[in-house]
Amino acid sequence: MAEPLDAVVIGAGHNGLVAAAYLARAGMQVLVLERRHVLGGAAVTEEMYPGFRYSVASYVVSLLRPEIIWDLDLPSHGLEILPLDGSFTPLDDGYLWMTNDHARTVANLRRWSKRDAEAYDEFGQLMADMVRFIKPIMSIVPPDPAGLDPRQWLPLRSLARAFRALPKDERAAFIQLMTMSAVDFVSQWFETDPLIATMSSWGIIGTFLGIRSPGTAYVMLHHYMGEVDGAFGAWGIPRGGTGAVSEAIASAARSFGARIRCEADVARILTEDGRAVGVVLRSGEEIRSRHVLSGADARRTFLQLLEPGTIPPDIEEDIRRFKYRGSSGKVNLALDGLPEFTSLPNKETTEHLRGAIGIGPSIDYLERAYDDAKYGRFSREPFIDMEILTTVDSSLAPPGKHVVSCFVQYAPYHLADGKEWDDLEREAFGDAVVDAIARFAPNIKDLILHRQVLSPRDLEDVLGLTEGNIFQGELTLEQLFWSRPAAGVGRFRAPVRNLWLCGSSAHPGGGIMGAPGRLAAGEVLRTARR
Predict the structure, then answer these.
(1) At 501, which helix (H) or strand (E)?
(2) Residue whose C-alpha is closest to residue 450's, from 329, 331, 330, 333
(3) Which residues on neighbouring strands pair with residue 232, listed in sequence order?
(4) Which of 522, 528, 497 is nearest to 507 (CA)?
(5) Burial of 245 (C-beta count, 10 Å sphere; 0-12/13-18/19+)
(6) Separation between Cα atoms, residue 178 and residue 375, nearest integer Å
(7) 305 with 296: CB under 8 angstroms?
(8) Nearest-angstrom CA–CA distance, 242 and 252
């Protein structure tokens, strides 16, 4: 029998690739196995229409950990992040426009409310302070609250000291961020409805909650934690689409000696005497390894890839309770030209098209979108986070043409009245998205050359995201830190020796971040040394 590998990684999503790169850099023999024909998982670029390349699922970058970029030297492997310029919210009677130019943003806000313009700096400073306080937790392996090793708690000492050092009002604000709704939190600073709606919309991304639901303030904070080239809270797109992030990490992993196989679908994780010893592919091929890391979510890893009865019944029950509740869809468009928003015609400027465009003009609009989802329907007037990617990276389409990414809330995985996400329902959802944009940019319907509509079921079937949840599990308070995905499994270690979680079902959660992969690799290496 061939000598076993040091590690097999299930899934070539960006977290799996990060884990593989760190393990290979440490000298391990690593093999990554990807089910699809293309690597990247949800961070993938594909040509779905001749000459047009879509960021099929994930579409923007901000949360990718700087230490991963430095450690793996990703720029030398082709990674280049192009910054988006703020956000634009079209309205029926005007628009709200915030840019990367601070003075210009304040002037735009002053048109709406002098109070809001004055509060903008105060709010921004508070969120920056909150991010500086909480961001180190992304690099901490959570302790096991039921464990007996006091050393696991040592990394939290600095966090406790930092919390005590916060001013009293900021300690109170942090508690509010962890418990309040996005609307209630933001409304403490601002009075303009479109501004509150725009800022609160960050709190519903990928979450089956409304902007008035407790817990959405934390999701908003999660999206503030990123940066692009040191710019706090900024977002960008990778040149070449989000697949370029995965390709750069894969290139780094290969440079350290890791191997990556596509079209290698793992059917089962092999175990012997309570220990993971390798995997079996759908083809029947058996691959032995000393460690198995899974970039798949917790449900797929523990309940589908392991033989029934492998993990303790209490942990199995916790894994079954871990919430996914997919609530999002994606629509990608190939356009023959630029859409034109009635409230700010292109003859005046097209600068507003170089950032995020939010179709969510009011608090009530966003809450009504959630009302549909609560009762098992996709939103007839959905919230859309829309980016015209080619205004920043023209290489994604032929000259003069454009690629538009539309991330959509809400599209519940479970539909009411016995409906399924069949072709008819998918196309009706796509129509609702285009109609919502056309309300503010009527010419878009005449520009569409091709559209790709992905329902939550498509995200599950094509990309392996259970129930279509983009974070591999909701980012709600009870599913964070040592409870992600369950108590006793929050340190990346499965209840099977030498089996590890390295995807977004593990701490600190989802987004193109890479932190779960890096932290899991660190735990594998510490165990291997012992």
Answers:
(1) strand 499-501
(2) 333
(3) 227
(4) 522
(5) buried
(6) 26
(7) yes
(8) 16
Alpha helices in 385-455 (DSSP H): 423-438, 444-447
Strands 94-98 and 87-91: antiparallel
Q: How many residues does the chain have?
A: 530
Residue with tokens 């009411």, as numbered in its chain: 416
Distance of CA 77 to the CA centre of its chain: 22
**Which H or E element spans position 318?**
helix 313-321
At 424-451, the pLDDT tens digits run 999 999 999 999 999 999 999 999 999 9
Strands (E), 295-412: 328-335, 356-359, 383-388, 402-409
pLDDT-derived band of residue 495, with 50, 70 and 90 as boundaries? very high
Q: Which of 78, 79, 77 is nearest to 253 (CA)?
A: 77
From the list 368, 528, 334, the residue with the least C-alpha distance to 448 is 334
Task: Report the SS3 class of residue 438.
Answer: helix
Residue partners of 172: CB distance under 8 A and separation at least 6:
none
pLDDT digits (tens, 9 = 90+) for 269-312: 999 999 999 999 999 999 999 999 999 999 999 999 999 999 99
* CA pair distance 96, 88, nearest whole angstrom: 6
213 Rama sector, left if φ>0, alpha if ψ -120 to 50, beta otherwise: beta
Sheet strands (E) in 219-281: 227-228, 231-232, 236-238, 259-261, 266-272, 275-281
Tokens describing residue 507: 């701490």
Q: 265: which residues sit within 8 A by CB, 6+ positions away?
A: 33, 35, 281, 282, 283
| Three-state secondary structure call for residue 316 | helix
Query: How far is residue 387's CA from residue 356's CA, in Å, rounded to a whole number?
Result: 5
What single-letter amino acid sits at 500? W
At 187-221, the pLDDT tens digits run 999 999 999 999 999 999 999 999 999 999 999 99
Stated pTM of the model? 0.96
Helices (H) and strands (E) in the chain — how many of each? 17, 20
Residue 482 three-state SS: helix
Q: Give the separation between CA 359 and CA 382, rounded to whole angstroms.
A: 8
Integer Cα distance of 47 and 28 in angstroms: 34
Token couple for 49: 């229409």
Residues β-bridged to residue 16: none
Within 439-500, where are the H helices? 444-447, 456-463
What is the rounded CA–CA span in Å between residue 489 and residue 26? Answer: 24
Secondary structure class of 93 (helix, strand, coil): coil
172 C-beta neighbours (distance < 10 Å), count: 11
Distance between CA atoms of 395 and 388, rounded to whole angstroms? 12
Contacts of 451 (CB under 8 A, 6+ apart): 331, 332, 333, 334, 430, 434
Burial 63-94 (b: 16+ CB within 10 A, else e): bbbeebbebbebeebebebebbbbbbbbbeee
